[in-house]
Design brief:
Elements: H1 2-24, E1 29-33, E2 36-40, E3 44-46, E4 50-52, H2 57-90, H3 98-122, E5 131-134, H4 136-158
Keywords: Glycoprotein, Membrane, Transmembrane, Transmembrane helix
Organism: Chionis minor (Black-faced sheathbill)
Protein name: Epithelial membrane protein 1
């Protein structure tokens, strides 16, 4: 049981770190242009220098929603990690990890909503680019989506042990 808890803890920490990286870094979409490689993220567009991400007024609300949901997912993931540690030492068997699992599933929903909005609105749209593809931050966000769901379910299953 201790090995299982340690494994879940390590995966949870890895998920938090990957969420930070995927939200902060500006490599959600990568494209090629005359000036070289262009990458866009949730905050900036980078070529040789980084500048404010040019977004049309019709997509501005969508971008703000993606930013908000990704930040919320980080917050909920960190809260779930703290709650896991607190519940591990304070609650008795059979009552542990309800709150942690529920918070992690809320984190999962935030990631799902944020990345889904980004996929629907911004896939393939890199300004001044001839061809584009998804960057590592987009892929990390989907990996975090899977990990947070698995961790949330495992916390709910572990409550019985």
């Amino acid at each position: 049981m201790l090995v299982l808890l340690a494994g879940i803890f390590v995966v949870h920490i890895a998920t938090v770190i990957m969420l930070f990286v995927s939200t902060i870094a500006n490599v959600w979409m990568v494209g090629s242009s005359n000036l070289g490689k262009v990458s866009t993220g949730l905050w900036l567009m980078c070529n040789k220098t980084c500048e404010q991400l040019p977004v049309s007024s019709s997509n501005e609300a969508s971008l703000k929603a993606v930013q908000a949901f990704m930040i919320l997912s980080i917050i909920f993931s960190v809260i779930a990690l703290v709650m896991f540690i607190v519940q591990l030492f304070t609650l008795e068997k059979g009552k542990r990890f309800y709150i942690t699992g529920a918070i992690m599933l809320v984190c999962w929903m935030c990631i799902l909503i944020g990345v889904s909005i980004y996929t629907a609105r911004f896939t393939g749209r890199v300004p001044d680019s001839t061809s584009s593809h998804h960057g590592y931050c987009f892929i990390l966000a989907w990996i975090c989506f899977c990990f947070s769901f698995i961790i949330g379910i495992l916390y709910l299953v572990l409550r019985k042990k």
